[in-house]
Amino acid sequence: MSTTVQVSAERSYAVVIGRDLLAEIVPLTEGATRAGVIFQPSVQDVARRVGAILERAGIDVVPVEVPDAEGSKTAEVAGRCWSALGAAGFTRNDVVVGIGGGAVTDLAGFIAATWLRGVRCILVPTSVLAMVDAAIGGKTGINTREGKNLVGVFSSPVGVLCDVTTLSDLPRAEIVSGLAEVVKVGLTSDATIVADLLVRTSDALDVEGDLLPDLIRRAVQVKADVVGADFREVGGANGAIGREALNYGHTLGHAIEHCEDYTWRHGNAVAVGLMFAGQLAFLGGRLDAEGVETHRAVLDAVGLPRTYRRDAWPALLEAMSLDKKSRGTTLRFVVLDGLQNPTIWRAPEQDLLVAAYDAISA
Ligand code: GLY
Hints:
Blueprint: E1 2-9, E2 11-18, E3 34-39, H1 44-56, E4 60-65, H2 75-87, E5 95-100, H3 102-114, E6 120-125, H4 128-134, E7 139-144, E8 147-154, E9 159-163, H5 172-188, H6 191-199, H7 201-204, H8 211-229, H9 250-259, H10 266-283, H11 289-302, H12 313-322, E10 332-336, E11 342-346, H13 350-360
Parallel strand pairs: 2-9, 3-4, 3-5, 5-6, 6-9
Antiparallel strand pairs: 1-2, 7-8, 10-11
Helix pairs in contact: 3-4, 4-5, 4-8, 5-6, 5-8, 5-10, 5-11, 9-10, 9-12, 10-11, 10-13
Bound molecules: glycine (GLY).
C-alpha cells in the first residue's frame, strides 16, 4: 500500500510514500541509458536493491559511494561524482539517483542540477528527516568551509520514493530527531499532527506501524503546499510568509548546530529552536500560555530536547547574526501568532530574546 503526494513547484512530481516501493523507480528512468546511483555506505543494501531493479530494466548502473552525513556535502565529493558521471559518458537523457539521508539527497540533487546544466534526479530518502524535508522542495547544495548550504541551486527532482522499510535499521534516536521536522509542521500548519504525536506517541515511533507513514504523508503534504506557493522562498502571495515558515525553530537550531560543531543531530537542535521560538512569541504577546505548553508537551512526548546550556547565549547570538537566513544585519524569526499561524518577526527586542533564552536554558 502506498500513497502519493503531488508537488507542483517548478515542475510537477510525485512523492510516493509506503512500503516496498523501490520498483516504482523504473518508469521515472524512461529513455535513460545510465543511472548514476549516489549513496552513502550505511544504505548500501538499499542501493544494491535499486541497482538490481535498474539493471533488470536495461539501465547501466554507475554506483557512486559518498561519505555518510554532512561529509558528503563538499566540493571534493561533488567533484568525484562529476568525474564518475563523466567517465561513464553520462548524457542529458541519463538520470541521477540519490539514496540516503538529507545530506546525500541534497548532494545528489546538486549533482543532477549541475551536470550538463541539469539532468533528471530521482530521490530515495532513507531517514524521516529526508522524507519529510530535505528530499522535498528542490533545495539542493553543498557546504563550504564558511558555512552550510552556501553553494546550491533550486532544482526539483522528477520523483521521490519514500520507502519506510528503509527506516527499519535506523537507531531510534535518528527517528526521534527526524520527527522534529514533523513536530515543526504540526505546530505551524497541521494540528492533527500535533494531536497524533501527543496521543499516539509510541505508534508514531513504530517504523512497522501505519501511523508513521501517515504522519510522513501529512508532513509531505504541508511541505508540498508551501513550496507550491513559494518555490524560491521569495514570500507567498499578498505578503504571506511562504516557504520561510519551514524555517520555524531553525534560527536558533542552526546556531546550536554551529556551536556544537555539527555533532548534534539537526532535528534535536531544531527542537530546542522550536521551544525558543514558542517562548519568544509568548513573551511578545503573540502566543498564549497554552500554545507554549503544547510546544513543551509535544517535544517531551516525542523525546526531543527543549533546553540548552545557559552560558551559550553570547555564542548563539553571534551565530544567529551570521546565519544567512537573518538577511543582512537584522535578526528575523519565524514565530506563531497563535498555533498554526506562522509569521515573521523582524528584530525582536534584545531583552525579549534574552528572556526567551532564559526560559529554555538549563
Ligand atoms: N528545509 C526548508 C526548506 O526546504 O525550505
